[in-house]
Specification:
This is PDEase domain-containing protein. GO terms for molecular function: 3',5'-cyclic-nucleotide phosphodiesterase activity; metal ion binding. Keywords: Hydrolase, Metal-binding. By secondary structure, the protein is mostly helical. It has a single domain, classed as Catalytic domain of cyclic nucleotide phosphodiesterase 4b2b (Orthogonal Bundle). The protein has 16 helices and no strands. It has helices at about 5-15, 20-25, 30-40, 50-65, 80-90, 100-105, 110-115, 120-130, 145-160, 165-180, 185, 190-200, 210-235, 250-270, 280-295, 300-310. Helix 5 packs across helix 9 (about 145-160), helix 5 (about 80-90) runs parallel beside helix 12 (about 190-200) and helix 14 (about 250-270) packs antiparallel against helix 15 (about 280-295). The longest helix has 24 residues, at about 210-235. It is globular and about 55 Å long.
Length: about 400
């Protein structure tokens, strides 16, 4: 259905559902061009790929339009809704499958360029806005200057919020508002609401149906191990939770829930979404209890945990994601893209992203972007798909909760 371009499909349906083409003056061909290149620019990482991005887009739309009867939609204007959808789609664009900490430790050129601060998030933003600077990809061209300034600011703020290094700051702000009984300060701030929504979506697999949560957890753990493997090969200190040789996935996941997930979802449930958020919060706690059970059983290996606690079929391994996507096989080493030298290497000596031909556009007479956006690792279809919206719009599903 998505023809290997899940972001393009999901965003198109959402744009149609909420009339964003008209309200934000976006041409359909330009929109398809932009999101198709965004789709193709995601690397075939186990976790940070275009399926994750599409999942985040879907979750954002669900939070906006379905939770508590969609009351958040009444608090935002259509430009803010547009910004939230775009931010979700691009929030991990060209993610190399390595963490900010890896880039900083390696002294990579991206870390140098962005002064070690939210390196990946700033790269995702820069790459996306450079793409949109070309006419055939400019989804902002129909906006007035003031509208564009506001939308760009909102997108930047939301994507930067996905950096886990600022997570505690967001949670602290929400707890302060709750303790001081200033909930209205949050509810009357569109920017704060959008930050909360994209954060919920980005770590949203923790609130999905148990088997689906287990699947996403397996994928992120494998991506962590791949980074640890490369750190070992490069003679770097292996980052916490990323050493394949000393795996303790149950303990790590329990810590992640207790330190990151539960404090955030608990305060969001109290300050923003009541009572419609309760099913999501309940699912978060169910998933947490599964990891606690695994820890109690002293299970460390993710495969054992999936089999004995989550009861996932042993054949559902990381490589099985190829059955549902158009990803090409992952090379033994996928490095970090260096935009100043697309075919070279970064400062760390890590190979740059392999370069594939630019996919065609939906409009005629156009070529690929004149900058370095032809570094794609996803097999593109013959042409950017023209997607159709179903005649009857189904109710937005609860993402991943059965």
């Amino acid at each position: 259905m998505a023809q290997g371009s899940p972001i393009s499909y999901v965003t198109y349906v959402i744009f149609e559902r909420h009339n964003l083409f008209t309200s934000c003056s976006v041409e359909r061909n330009v929109m398809l061009n932009f999101f198709w290149f965004i789709d193709a620019g995601y690397l075939p990482n186990p976790y940070h790929n275009n399926c994750h991005a599409a999942d985040v887009v879907n979750y954002v739309e669900f939070m906006l339009s379905a939770v508590d009867g969609g009351f958040i939609m009444t608090l935002l204007n259509m430009q803010e809704v547009f910004a939230a959808i775009v931010a979700a789609a691009i929030h991990d664009f060209r993610h190399p499958g390595k963490s900010n900490n890896f880039l900083v430790k390696a002294g990579h050129s991206l870390a140098v360029r962005y002064s070690d601060a939210s390196v990946l998030e700033r790269m995702h933003l820069a790459e996306s806005f450079i793409l949109a600077s070309e006419p055939q990809f400019n989804i902002f061209s129909g906006m007035k200057p003031k509208q564009y300034t506001e939308v760009r600011k909102a997108i930047i703020e939301m994507v930067l919020t996905t950096d886990l290094s600022v997570h505690l700051q967001l949670v602290g702000s929400l707890k302060t508002a709750l303790l001081s009984q200033n909930k209205n300060d949050v509810m009357e701030s569109p920017m704060m609401l959008m930050k909360i929504i994209i954060k919920c979506a980005d770590i949203g697999h923790s609130s999905k149906a148990t088997l689906l949560h287990a699947r996403w957890s397996e994928l992120i753990i494998e991506e962590f191990f791949l980074q640890g493997d490369e750190e070992k090969e490069l003679g770097m200190e292996i980052s916490p939770f990323m050493n394949r040789a000393s795996e303790n996935s149950a303990k790590n996941q329990v810590g992640f829930f207790e330190f990151i997930i539960l404090p955030f979802f608990d305060v969001v449930a109290e300050i923003v979404f009541t009572p419609g958020f309760k099913p999501i919060l309940d699912q978060v706690h169910r998933n947490y209890n599964m990891w606690k059970k695994a820890e109690m059983l002293q299970l460390k290996n993710i495969k054992d945990i999936l089999d004995q606690v989550f009861c996932v079929d042993e054949h559902r391994t990381v490589s099985a994601q190829a059955n549902r996507t158009s990803f090409v096989p992952r090379p033994s080493h996928i490095g970090v893209h260096n935009s100043s030298s697309p075919r070279g290497t970064g400062n760390s000596g890590t190979p740059a992203m392999p370069v594939a031909p630019s996919p065609p556009l939906t409009s005629t007479g156009g070529g690929g972007p004149s900058t370095h956006h032809n570094s794609m690792c996803v097999t593109p279809p013959a042409a950017a798909p023209v997607l159709e919206t179903p005649d009857e719009e189904p109710s937005p599903p609860l993402p991943g909760v059965e």
